[in-house]
Amino acid sequence: xxxxxxxxxTLKHDIQKSVAIIHNKQFIFYTDRGVFSKxxxxxxxxxxxxxxxxxxxxxxxxxxxxxxxxxxxxxAHESDAEVHMIDINRRSLELARKNVNTNHVNVQIYESNLYxxxxxxxxxxxxxxxxxVGKTILYQILxxxxxxxxxxxxxxxxxxxxxxxxxxxxFLSQFYSVELKNKNKGFYIICGxxx
Length: 195
What we know:
Blueprint: E1 16-22, E2 25-31, H1 43-51, E3 60-64, H2 70-78, E4 82-87, H3 90-102, E5 108-111, E6 122-127, H4 135-144, E7 149-160, H5 165-172, E8 176-184, E9 187-194
Parallel strand pairs: 3-4, 3-6, 4-5, 6-7
Antiparallel strand pairs: 1-2, 7-9, 8-9
């Protein structure tokens, strides 16, 4: 099986167009094999985006592990923030660029293995993190986010209770002030503020 956090150049394309309605706004997303949530906007990401109040989002935002781009595109569309989007998967980045153009937003997109190519510090890091990388790398992603957040900056993630939401919150509490913002069908929307 091809993982969405790897680059498999041999994987045949099967580009699909999907429509997502988020807070009564319509977005068009192109997806493909070898990327997360090929069938369109997943429930966890939708819950995350419907929980965030974009009127409160300002400054710089990093969409970590952007995939084909729904988080960064939605935030760029609904706020005045400067949005950066990163992923390790080149196919995801190609789709993200296509979706950015399709949805008429202005963002910065670049390839990065974890935070390797991230030079900025951000007011927000928002992610549906790649659970399948395993707990060690997942926790590394969440801990290292702190280095790329401004003081009082926020890390927002979505994680399902069956994928370790509660233990992840306990882990995050070592580095952030942690708040559970929403729960929906087992998905936890977690916010960690950089103290």
